[in-house]
Amino acid sequence: MMSTVDQTRELAAFLRTRRERLDPRDVALPARRTQRRTPGLRREEVAELAGVSVDYVIRLEQGRGLRPSPEVLEALAGALRLSDDERVYLFDLAQQRPTGRPSARPRAEADEAGPISRLVLDLSPLPAMLLNHRFDIIAWNPEMAALVVDFGTLPPEQRNSMWLCTLHPGLRDFYRDRERTLREGIADLRAAWAAHPDDTALSELIDELTSGSEEVARLWALRDVRVNGRGRKRLRHATAGPLTVEYEVLAPLQAPGQRLVIYRAADPASRRALDAVTATCDRVRSLVSAEAPAAGHA
């Protein structure tokens, strides 16, 4: 079973993988005449770029218990050409706060949907759902359920967007760009894992995903890190056929750790397909509204 985050070991592995993905030309270093036995930059080159000793880089990559300062982390992030999300991940692993700006992801989290659940319903007819930092689906509207799966019929432990897209057999062909969708989702999950190192439930989820799918295990080992704020998904609905949605992820200020996810059609053909999916929801709402006065008089 995967334990909660071992920051020292994960920091070592992350630095190695980021070093190995770089070419000397990526960082304006002269190409070496001698053939490289391993891919990427050498430790000496990283040390030179970051302004630290080679021995320090070696000890970091061997997980020998160092806790680098924010200044050293900034230097390593620049040397390794880390993205903003990878930079935050690096600081999370080192249990440091980035210099010059607050942490990009809050540590606190509340699972209760509260008033935001009403907002999810108010967003109809746009499909919307509310997630916590573990990607548990804690609120949704009928349109999102009609598009993806009827979340209300699932056991609570399966109401998780990462579990659904990786292990749910009925959604195996739902994502037309499955490899890209999984890779982006797992990169986002890895960022959450580092930001919540003591969350055993999150670690248990990751263990279930990686042990239950060779595909997930392979992508998790890449150590990609990316927080997905917006993008596109190419879907294949069982009755409406292929469609493409654009998604937007909003972070409510009053609910740290939660994410409000909203879908909208990306093109006219997708709009027609999405309208066909949500038409059923409109009919259900109409029936409920028609029956409400009679129920009230009773």
Automatic annotation (TrEMBL):
Domain HTH cro/C1-type per the UniProt entry, residue ranges: 40-87
GO MF, one annotated term: DNA binding
Database matches in Pfam families: HTH_31, MLTR_LBD
Coiled-coil region list: none
Superkingdom of the source species: Bacteria
Listed name of the protein: Helix-turn-helix transcriptional regulator
Species whose genome carries this gene: Nonomuraea turkmeniaca
